[in-house]
Amino acid sequence: MAGILDHMEDTAFLDKALASLESTYGVRAIVTGSAGEPVPAKEGGNGVQPAVRFFPFATDGTAGGLECSAGDAAAIDRAEPQIRIYVSCINAVLRRETEIQQLSNEVLDLSEEINFLFHLEKKMLGTKRLRIFCEMTLSEIAKKIKADRAFVTLQNVNMEDLTACLNMSDEEASGIRGRHTVFDLASRRMDTVLSTLDNGMSVLVSPILVKDGHAGFMTFLRDGDKRFFTAYEKKFVGILNSGISSMIEALRLYDSLKELYLNTVKALAAAIDAKDQYTHGHSFRVARYTIAIAKAMNLSEEAVLDMEIAAFMHDLGKIGVPESVLNKKGKLTPAEYEEMKRHPHFTGRILEPIKLPEFIVTTALQHHERLDGSGYPLGLKGDKITLPARIVAVADVFDALTSDRPYRPALTVEKALQHLVDGIDTEFDRDVVSALIRTLKQGTNIRELTDIYRDLKFTDIQHLNFFLVELANMLVK
Question: What is 276-476's CATH topology?
Fold first, then answer.
């Protein structure tokens, strides 16, 4: 129903007022909606008499008023003071009901926003990658407000640009960001802005606020042939953005600390490699091979980063091995070999007090273990060896075989791979070796291998791909 019934739930007083006007003054009053139509449930009497006067309810115009009629105008004049008292009382009730309704709507809106943030946070629980967080946030909010496209542009703490997009390319996002002043407006206001682009698309731009100002923008777009974003959707995004901005700032700080951590790890690995003149750059290359293999096995971005750190630190224990053993040009004696075999144990002892994630210590400790139990230092077999350790093991052996050593020159890629394939299911994990072969087939197309691929030696570069295909086929059988 229209008018007062949309604003006023308790109408008992109104019923009594209409009955009183008719019994006392002979005035019949009809409640009308904002368009002047009668509200049947609240008619006071039957029919309209010759003299008619309208008394509006003093609201925003959506509740209507009282249409009063009598046999003559004098009757309405006599009743008018009482009518105005009734209208005043009705206005007070309407204001109270309107305030309650507005408060209820605000509570519902706030509840919806809190519920959305709760479920968003639940989905992202454990997410430590800023890009992944941004992509998931775009997807969830765009789904909620029915945006067709979206993108986030921001700078990390090192002032490096990051762009995450939904249903559009980085180039499209950059073009919109560079051409339209709505971003400058959002930046100046430090608030969400609703606007229209020159191509007719509706756009919501919300600045990502951090401690020192704003780090970028979260942008949502709706195609021009659809309705524009509403003021409520603008408010919704603005409220969400305040919570999301704090999460983004925390992840930016985490990225900064993570980068500092990784650089420290790299410097430490380089210092260890420098102790052995024949293994200079070994940890760097093992990390590169590890990343390439992990990606080829479709492991998560977080897992890839974790394994990169573990790969850099896998030989840390060599700091406890005498240089005379590390740099010996001839074959190691049994005693010297036993000394060399202690370096994973040393790595574990060095890393354990630092309270690093357990997988780093475990990977460093296990990277010389072999599937048949012939490895060291624990003689683990099969699944007792973690996947990160099995990946680093293959990367470590492949780099060792393809690098110069005191006791032999570097082997060719073909011979090194043949050695790994010969050790499938006894020493090395089949899936890991297969992943290494797949990455080598792509050569310099794999970003992680660009810096090291050119230094590898090949028996016959012209037939390398055929050789790799043959090896891959062998592993499938």
Answer: Hypothetical protein af1432 (1.10.3210)
